[in-house]
Write a structure and sequence with these properties.
Elements: E1 23-24, H1 27-35, E2 39-46, E3 49-56, E4 58-60, E5 63-69, H2 73-79, E6 84-96, E7 104-118, H3 122-136, H4 149-153, E8 155-170, E9 188-191, H5 213-219
Antiparallel strand pairs: 1-8, 2-3, 4-5, 5-8, 6-7, 6-9, 7-8
InterPro entries: Pyridox_Oxase-rel, Split_barrel_FMN-bd
Protein name: Pyridoxamine 5'-phosphate oxidase-related, FMN-binding
Length: 223
């Protein structure tokens, strides 16, 4: 895809069919969803069985990075494919309706499709590791020991070059059947927030150290 284009063109693969009014294909929306999380779900097939696993990820431009041990069966399975996808979901609230049927969830989700490739250059591997740290905690990559040659050797990094993507967002209250609005049943939304609590310093710390800026920023919940 072209970075200068403001949106992903939906195809038969990426076009949202259900709840199309909640769908979006503009890159700013998709990237905002991706950048405010660090866990994605990755589907693959192993011995004719579909499997979906949660993994840490990072976005750099229009590339998603995943990593694992060199023997990781998921990375091996995906590396041979021409296409792959990942899904990222934020849970924002429980939508409690008057009827059992109309209960729902407020959420923000992105489904990303693209071409996988194994990263072979050490320089790109190092970049991927830095991005993975930054995805978790902004500024952390500047506070830690850098990845050494052995760690590069025993880690496989997979890059997903994004070719198309869609976002889907639900917010607001319950949508009930017209007759159900007259019922004496409470309805509404219970919001859900992802908050960072106070840090717990490692008891094996060799020095009496101040809390680093990346952690302070996290625990202030202003990422």
């Amino acid at each position: 895809t072209n970075l200068t284009m403001p949106k992903f063109e939906p195809t038969k693969l990426s076009k949202v069919k259900r709840g199309r009014n909640r769908a979006g294909y503009d890159k700013s929306t998709v990237f905002k969803i991706l950048d405010s999380h660090f866990i994605c779900h990755v589907p693959y097939v192993f011995e004719d069985t579909p499997i979906s696993i949660p993994m840490a990820y990072a976005r750099s431009g229009e590339t998603i990075y995943l990593h694992g041990a060199t023997g990781n069966r998921m990375l091996k399975s995906i590396a041979s494919l021409k296409k792959m996808s990942i899904t990222v979901t934020h849970l924002d609230g429980l939508v409690l309706a008057r009827s059992a049927f109309h209960h729902s969830i407020n959420y923000r989700s992105a489904v990303v499709f693209g071409t996988p490739r194994i990263v072979t250059e050490d320089s790109e591997k190092k970049h991927a590791f830095e991005m993975l740290l930054e995805q978790m905690a902004k500024g952390r990559s500047e506070e830690v020991r850098k990845t050494n040659e052995n760690e590069l050797k025993i880690t496989k990094v997979l890059a997903l070059n994004i070719t198309e993507a869609s976002a889907k967002i639900r917010d607001g209250g319950p949508i009930d059947d017209e007759d159900d609005y007259k019922l004496e049943i409470w309805a509404g939304v219970v919001p859900i927030k992802h908050l960072y609590e106070k840090e717990i310093t490692d008891t094996n710390l060799a020095f009496d150290l101040a809390i680093p800026p990346s952690v302070i920023k996290l625990t202030k919940n202003d990422q």
